[in-house]
Write a structure and sequence with these properties.
Length: 188
């Protein structure tokens, strides 16, 4: 074995030649405008519930507030011309159409405009509940219950019945580009 060659470079030494000098770094502020802070992305871990934003209380349903303000709809949302339509009839049509597509009575492509791209992609993958593909009786969807936690978001649920069995169906609708679109769907 050979011995390592001696180093030809020597570390920097202080003026008296006693010990090596440590390099010192000093932070200097950057001239000009600072960079905007980067938002922190928090990941949701499996089994840990996602943090939900705190919803501020809104106006009481059916009250117009100050004089001259328009009356509010049944869930406290302004329903004037040009404002958002009531999500309940749309949610009922959406759930019925989706279950018809699952049962093979309607092409899934007809649902494209009602869903966001990730949800529609999941619908077209072919994974469907077994109860939608078996049996010949029609799927009956009960009354749709709508909750609007904040303006522009509606959480809807209903009970679907087929062959004497009941199944829960839930969806989340959000306003995207001025219209209600489904951003999440759960069929039990």
């Amino acid at each position: 074995m050979s011995t390592p060659a001696p180093s030809t470079t020597s570390p920097a030494v202080d003026p008296q030649g006693q010990r090596p000098v440590r390099a010192q770094l000093r932070l200097v502020p950057t001239p000009g405008p600072g960079t905007p802070p980067v938002p922190v992305t928090r990941l949701v871990l499996r089994g840990v519930p996602a943090p939900r934003p705190v919803a501020l209380p809104g106006p009481r349903p059916g009250t117009g507030g100050r004089a001259g303000t328009p009356p509010l709809g049944p869930r406290g949302v302004d329903r004037r011309w040009g404002a958002l339509p009531d999500p309940a009839p749309l949610a009922h049509r959406l759930l019925v159409s989706t279950l018809e597509a699952f049962c093979g009575l309607r092409p899934v492509a007809q649902l494209r405009s009602a869903y966001t791209l990730p949800v529609f992609t999941a619908l077209t993958r072919g994974r469907r509940p077994a109860w939608t593909s078996t049996g010949t009786s029609p799927v009956l969807v009960g009354p749709v219950r709508v909750a609007e936690p904040v303006e522009g978001v509606a959480e809807v649920c209903a009970v679907a019945r087929r062959d004497g069995r009941a199944h829960a169906v839930a969806a989340r609708l959000e306003v995207i580009d001025g219209r209600w679109r489904c951003t999440a769907l759960q069929v039990g």
